[in-house]
Design a protein that fits this description.
five-stranded parallel beta sheet; alpha/beta; 2 domains; globular; FAD; NADH-Q_oxidoreductase; FAD/NAD(P)-binding domain; NAD(P)H dehydrogenase (quinone) activity; FAD-dependent oxidoreductase; binds flavin-adenine dinucleotide; flavoprotein
Length: 405
């Protein structure tokens, strides 16, 4: 009898956890498993703010997929997905034509959501992947390196605007305020020439976070030079910077670097392939399957799970993506064997920690508020745990964060 074919799209947190769990559960003779990813490495999306600011070398955030998969059980395709044909049950690839599946796992991750704001796609960076993170770092360094070479020095070269004071925006600001003094020293630039501006449309920084911790974060970042413009919306991004508005007041902020960190959506391929979706995210059934498609599982940021207590979607996180990967692998094993019961998925949230640079953070863990070095230590433990879940102790030793004292 023909072995069922399982195809996993994306080696992010959701896809890769599915793959490494499945390889432990399923024998070589039970299924053909293929993992497709556009890079031959996995990058830690949750560390990209560090690579973008240049506080962590880009290479530290990634590892080879071949180092964590069992190649006798998983066939890895280094290729880019261009479409999913749900009727024919095939996936189109850039290099490799088409591959057929009996069961599909979609873990293609997030993309930036710019909400139609004029000029953002053209003139702002988004911390979308490792390649963009490297580009942001290079771009900021280029602005600093150019400043003293011009006859008419342009101070706006040294202005960095961050759009959004949510989790990603705040973590990026935390790294920037530590990186800027290094850049000033390296390129002989007086620190007071540099401006870091955070623009947030909502009435508060880190909406939904504990107010006392938010105050701690704002005070810390302001002390290190961040200007917050809260309740202020970005109306347009231009070649010169951004145009913002608060109430009736419109202001232009000239800036050499604009980073948009205020919105994510699911991968456009989910939308293009005709799945019922909201901004590229599929509201999955309790077993993580796309409605009407018992053979298609969706994990990570391409999925949408409703928090029944507040009747709103859970924010997409690596924590949820990895937990989904575990359940998805178990459910695939049940389907392949035709025995056992499918497991339902409910997020088991342990807490949230938001870093404010390498040595500071805020968070709520197991219901307790933490901040400062304790929270920073916890953040590193969370980062190391993600490595451990995929590549075990060996990967933690190779890529883990240990500078905790
Ligand atoms: P991703 O991790 O985005 O992986 C998707 C994979 O699919 C990638 O390997 C990509 O290369 C691949 N891919 C995409 N398109 C294609 C294609 N067409 N063909 C082939 N392969 C493709 N979450 C937390 O829980 N805690 C945090 O502290 C946290 N901090 C964050 C900080 C930053 C700066 C950012 C940007 C996000 C943070 N998040 C955090 C959110 C978290 O990173 C995401 O929720 C998580 O990465 C989603 O995982 P995923 O498996 O859906 O996809």
């Amino acid at each position: 009898m023909k072995k069922p074919s399982i195809v996993i799209l994306g080696a992010g947190y959701g896809g890769l956890v599915t793959a490494v769990r499945l390889q432990k559960m399923i024998g070589v003779n039970e299924a053909d498993i293929t993992l497709v990813n556009k890079n031959d490495y996995h990058y830690e999306s949750t560390w990209l703010h560090e690579a973008s600011a240049g506080t962590l070398p880009a290479d530290r955030t990634r590892y080879k997929i071949s180092d964590v998969i069992d190649r006798s059980k998983i066939h890895f395709l280094h290729d880019t997905v261009t479409g999913i044909n749900r009727e024919a049950k095939t996936v189109a690839l850039t290099k490799g034509g088409e591959i057929a599946y009996d069961y599909l796992v979609v873990g293609l991750g997030y993309e930036a959501e710019t909400f139609g704001i004029k000029g953002l796609k053209e003139h702002a960076f988004t911390i979308a992947n490792l390649n963009v993170a490297r580009k942001i770092r290079e771009h900021i360094e280029y602005q600093f390196a150019t400043y003293n070479t011009e006859a008419h020095r342009r101070d706006d070269r040294l202005t960095i605007v961050v759009g959004g004071a949510g989790f990603t925006g705040i973590e990026f600001l935390g790294e920037l305020v530590n990186r800027v003094p290094e850049l000033c020293q390296e390129f002989d630039i007086p620190k007071e020439k540099v401006r870091i501006v955070c623009v947030e449309a909502a009435p508060t920084v880190l909406p939904g976070f504990d107010p006392e911790l938010v105050e701690y974060a704002v005070n810390t970042l302001e002390r290190k030079g961040v200007e917050f413009k809260i309740g202020t919306a970005i109306k347009e991004a231009t070649e010169e910077g951004i145009i913002v508005a608060k109430d009736e007041e419109v202001e232009e902020i000239k800036a050499g670097t604009v980073v948009w960190a205020a919105g994510v959506r699911g991968n456009h391929l989910v939308e293009d392939s005709g799945f019922e979706n909201m901004r590229g995210r599929v509201k999955v059934d309790p077993y993580l399957r796309a409605p009407g498609h018992e053979d298609v599982f969706i994990v990570g940021d391409c999925s949408l799970i409703i928090n029944e207590e507040i009747n709103r979607p859970y924010p997409p996180t690596a924590q949820i993506a990895m937990q989904q990967g575990e359940v998805c692998a178990k459910n695939l094993a049940v389907l392949v064997r035709g025995q056992g019961e499918l497991q339902t998925f409910t997020p088991d949230l342990k807490g949230t920690v938001c870093s404010l640079g390498e040595d500071d953070a805020i968070g709520v863990v197991f219901g307790r508020k933490i901040w400062g070095s304790k929270a920073s230590f916890m953040k590193k433990m969370v980062d190391n745990r993600a490595l451990y879940m995929i590549g075990g102790a060996g990967l933690v030793m190779k890529k883990g964060k240990f500078n905790v004292l």
